């Protein structure tokens, strides 16, 4: 699972400033930085990137450790990264649970022993998955049509209880149920989430019809204006934050397109 090691959150008083919020996870930093593809710089600049410095020497940090740890290797973590931008800091954990269970103070980078030193500069650059997959916070994104289940009460009245039960049992997804009070067939709870294949239901209905031209007892069709959208995050952002960020980007692009169309009309 890929982690976004840097956390951003916006100040309400200034939408273009980022602050390190919880130091546990990454987030949407829209408005604070420009994606690298949209920035006018050649390589990188403060508008699209943040520089982090790390300089750790085992011999310098070891005397400050407890007696139980002085003989063990020292683990360099994200806590040792120093940001050159005071409004941005490393995100050390994905969640509070991970922070409580972890034996390290942050994301482990390397272990070092006596006489060893690690010095480096790291660049955190804002980008999108279109440029590179490392900027993609999404693990899975799928959608399917919302099922509309309709029961024909008039046709259903011609069936016996045994036939109704047969209709219910023939659905492997258990999308139908029999009402204990009225004895009628109704849509089962969470049927929208369970329905996948209804071929067996269609076949059973055809066998029960007195005439081939009769209406179906139960109709399952796909809604044309409602969908079930599933998003799984890789951990860099929460799933709901991903969806809202994507909708914001879509809205911005549609507004840009609308403005360009209006400009073309005015020019004509």
| Principal-axes shape call | elongated
Summarize the helix and strand pattern as letters. Answer: EEEEHEEEHEEEHHEEHHEH
Level-1 CATH class name of the largest domain: Mainly Beta
Largest sheet: 3 strands, antiparallel
- Topology-level CATH name of the largest domain: RNA Polymerase Alpha Subunit, Chain A, domain 2
**CATH architecture label name of the largest domain:** Beta Complex
Within the largest sheet, what's the order of strands? 6-4-9
Distance between the termini: 52 Å
Low-confidence stretches are: 1-24
Mean pLDDT across all amino acids: 81
Helical residues, percent? 25-40%
Number of continuous helical runs: 7
Q: Any overview of this molecule?
A:
One of its GO terms (biological process) is transcription by RNA polymerase II. InterPro entries: DNA-dir_RNA_pol_RpoA/D/Rpb3, RBP11-like, RNApol_insert_sf, Rpo3/RPB3_RNA_Pol_subunit. The chain is an alpha+beta fold. The protein folds into 2 domains: 6-136, RNA Polymerase Alpha Subunit, Chain A, domain 2, CATH 2.170.120; 141-229, no CATH class. It is 25% helix and 29% strand. The protein has 7 helices and 13 strands. The chain has a 3-stranded antiparallel β-sheet with strand order 6-4-9. Strands 1-7 form a two-stranded antiparallel ribbon. Strand 2 and strand 3 (14-19) form a beta hairpin. The radius of gyration is 29 Å and the shape is elongated. Mean pLDDT is 81; it is low at 1-24.
